[in-house]
Amino acid sequence: MTEILVQATSGDQVPPVTRVVEHPAWPVLKDAVERIRPWQSKDGSIDFGAEGAPERADAEAVVRRVVDTVEELSPLLPHDADYHVALVKDLRRWAEGGFEVPDFLDSLLAFQPAANRADGLQHLVVFPMYTQNGNPDRNLEAVVLRMVWPDWLAELERTRYDNPLFCGIKFEDFTAGYDTNSAVLFPETIAVREAPERFSWGGIFCDREAARFRRVTEAAVGILGVELPEDVAAMVHDQTRCEEAFVLWDMVHDRTHSHGDLPFDPFMIKQRQPFWMYGLEELRCDLTAFKEAVKLADDGVPQARDVQYAVLFDRMFRFPVTGERVRNYDGLGGQLLFAYLHKHDVVRWTDNKLFIDWQRAPQVTNQLCADIEQLYRDGIDRPKLVHWFAGYELVATYLAPHPGSKWAKGPDALDLSQPPRKLVDDVLPDEFPLSMFYEALSKKLRNVIASTRGITARSAERAAA
Questions:
Q1: Residue 140 pairs with which residues in a beta bridge?
Q2: Residue 1 reports pLDDT greater than 60
Q3: pLDDT at 10
Q4: d(Cα 329, Cα 282) in Å, to the nearest integer?
Q5: Are strands 202-205 and 184-185 parallel, antiparallel or unpaired?
Q6: Angle at 142 between CA 76 and CA 97, to 5 degrees
Q7: Alpha helices of 345-435 — where are they, by DSSP H?
C-alpha cells in the first residue's frame, strides 16, 4: 500500500504509516468503541434508564470520537471510502435517534471487500454485531484486517473453485468481541433493519485458525504419542504454511455448501433440524475440501497435502473436545471422522499411543465423504423425516447414541403425528456422548484449548517467546 502522510489531531504532521494499527488514531478509536460496548443491551441499543448507563450527552460524545477517528483513518484506505462515508452516517443516525436498536444496513451494503481481494489489502471495519462463537450480543466492534489472496489461491479460485464472495483475511487488531473464539466476519451477524436479499461477501480469519490449530495439534500429538512424518511436523510448526492450508480449505469448504446433490437448504440456517444433520453438512464440506486436496496434491499444488493434515488433525483432535456438549454439531463431525477411521484401522489407540496409517488415510477419509454424499443423493427421494433417520443411522453406525435416546429406539418411540420440526425437541442435548477415548483426551486438552481464546499469529509468537 502507498504510504500516506497523515495529520495528527493537533495539526502536526505524523510519520507516514502503512499499517492502520500504527496510526495514532487507531487506539483512540478502539478505546472509544470499548467505552460504548458495556453500555449496550443485547440488541445493541443503549437503555439510558438502566443501572450504569451513561448520560446521553456522554454517549453522543464518544460516538463523535468514533466518527472523528474513522474519518481520520479513512484516507489510508481509499478503497473503503464509500463504506466509511456510509458508516459515519449510520453512526450519527444511531446517536441522533436516541441509541435505539442500531441499523447499519446502508454501511453494510457499501462494504464490498470481495470486489477487490488484493493480497495484503487492509480494511477498517466498524459495525454493531455479534461474533460467531464469540460474543452473542450485537455490540459495536472495530477490527482492522488484511486480505489473504496470494496469486496461487486466486488462480485456483478462477480455474477450479469459483467462489467470488469468499474473503481470506487476517487480524491486525480488534475490540473485545474478537478477543474470543470467533474466527469469522459474516455480514449476517450485523444489526440491520432488514436482511439484504443476498450477501456479497464472507470472511474467515485464517491466521487465528492456523495459530489455534498449531497449538492444539502440538499438544495432542504429544499427549497421544503420535509419530509425525518429518514433513507433517514441519507444517505444524510453520504458521505461514498453516495459514495457506486453512485459506484453501476454507475456500473449498465455503463453496461446497451450495454444490453437490443437496436434498435440503444447503445453508440450513432457515430450517430447524436435528443437530446431527448440521454436523453431517459441515463434515461433508470439510471432507470435500480433503478430497479436492488429494486431487490437487496429485496435480503438484504444494499446499494441498497440508490441507489434508489440517482437516484430519483439526477434526480429530480439536473439534470433538471444544465447546459445550449441547448440540455440538462440529464436535459430532470430529467424533464421526475419528470413529470411522478407527473402525477401518487407519487410526489405532494401542499401548497408550495413537498410530496413524498415513498411506491409507486419504483413501478411507474419501470413503466417508462418499458415504455422506450417497446419503445426500438418496435423500432427494426421501421425505424429510425419513432422511433425518437415515442420517441418524449413518452416525449411529460409528458412534453410540445416549442410552436414553428416543431417536435411537426408532420411529415407534416418537409421536409421528407431530410435524418433523417438533420431533427435534425429542433430540437429547448430547445425543452422541463422547467416547472414553475423548473423555480422557478432553481433560488433558481442556487448558490448551482455553488458551487459544483470542489467539492470533502475533500473540502465539509472543507466548512462545
A1: 128
A2: no
A3: 35
A4: 8
A5: antiparallel
A6: 105
A7: 361-379, 384-396, 420-423
CB contact set of 423 (below 8 Å; sequence gap of 6+): 385, 414, 415, 416
Lowest mean pLDDT among 79-93, 140-154, 261-275, 425-439: 261-275
- Identify which of 308, 302, 239, 251 has the alpha carbon closest to the alpha carbon of residue 462: 239
Please, what is the Cα angle at 253 between 217 and 151, to 5 degrees? 90
- Residue 274 amino acid letter: P
Q: Which residues partner with 13 through β-bridges?
A: 7
In terms of C-beta distances under 8 Å and separation of at least 24 residues, what long-range contacts does 296-303 make, across chains too? 296/156, 301/152, 301/156, 303/152, 303/241, 303/244, 303/245, 303/248
pLDDT confidence of residue 462: 81
- What's the rounded Cα separation, in Å, for the pair 278 and 266? 10
Rounded Cα–Cα distance for residues 265 and 140 (Å): 31
Helices and strands counted in the chain (H then E) = 16, 7
pLDDT at 58 over 90: yes
Q: What's residue 14's pLDDT?
A: 40
Question: pTM for this structure?
Answer: 0.94
- Overall average pLDDT of the 156-162 stretch: 98
Q: How far apart are CA 74 and CA 66, in angstroms?
A: 12
pLDDT digits (tens, 9 = 90+) for 321-368: 999 999 999 999 999 999 999 999 999 999 999 999 999 999 999 999
Q: How many residues does the chain have?
A: 465
User: Are 191 and 101 spatial neighbours (Cβ–Cβ below 8 Å)?
Assistant: yes
Write the single-letter amino acid at 383. P
* Cα distances (angstroms) measured from residue 306 to each of 149, 150, 301, 360: 17, 16, 10, 16
Cell digits of residue 244: 495457506
Band (pLDDT 50/70/90 cuts) for residue 4 is very low
The Cα–Cα gap between 122 and 433 comes to 43
- The beta-carbon contacts of 114-119 under 8 Å, at least 24 apart in sequence, are 114/164, 114/165, 114/166, 114/167, 114/200, 114/201, 116/79, 117/147, 117/149, 117/154, 117/167, 117/168, 118/147, 118/149, 119/147, 119/148, 119/149, 119/150, 119/151
- Mean pLDDT, the chain, as a whole number? 94
**Quick check: 293 pLDDT over 70?**
yes
